[in-house]
Design goal:
Layout lengths: L2 H14 L6 H10 L2 H8 L12 H28 L11 H22 L21 H30 L1
Helix pairs in contact: 1-2, 1-5, 1-6, 2-4, 2-5, 4-5
Length: about 170
């Protein structure tokens, strides 16, 4: 599945709980989850999904994303602001970073475990993947699109409401 589909649940979560969730940390964790499969793809290794697509690997990626991502995101947003972009508040709280990183890595693992037979989320305890349901691929893609659209609608409605109240 392509990366934009993995971002859609993050948009839905941001729409539902904007003050407690960092979409940037979510995106960073989601991308970090794909470093190992991308490396394996480039080096012609099989299977594509390895330790990063286990509960242990995803948790480790979420922890590293939260610990290093908060500082990296702060630097990024300060640099972005220097380009002339007007940002209200680029400070990211620990709650926002942890929720974004954990939900980003967790949702990536869950979506991949449902779709790909080489994902073993409970390894090394078991190689079984009880979450695998490859016949749901199109349904999952549609659910991701709808979640993203719903999240965007919530964010736009919230922004419009804030403009209305400020006027």
């Amino acid at each position: 599945m392509f990366l934009p589909f993995y971002m859609a649940p993050g948009l839905a979560i941001k729409g539902l709980m904007p003050r407690h969730f960092s979409f940037s940390a979510f995106a960073l964790a989601t991308v970090a989850m794909e470093i190992e499969p991308l490396y394996r793809l480039w080096t012609y290794q099989s299977p594509l999904h390895g330790v990063s697509h286990t509960l242990t690997g995803a948790l480790l990626i979420a922890i590293l994303t939260a610990l290093f991502g908060r500082a990296a995101l702060g630097i990024f947003w300060r640099l972005f602001e220097k380009t002339g972009a007007m940002l209200e508040n680029y400070a990211v709280t620990w709650t926002q970073v942890w929720s974004g990183a954990l939900l980003g890595a967790g949702s990536r693992l869950l979506l991949d475990a449902v779709m790909y037979p080489d994902v073993h989320p409970f390894a090394p305890i078991t190689e079984a993947n009880p979450l695998l349901m490859p016949t749901l691929d199109l349904s999952i893609l549609l659910a991701c699109v709808l979640a993203g659209m719903g999240g965007m609608a919530l964010m736009l409605a919230r922004a419009a409401w804030q403009q209305y109240r400020a006027a």
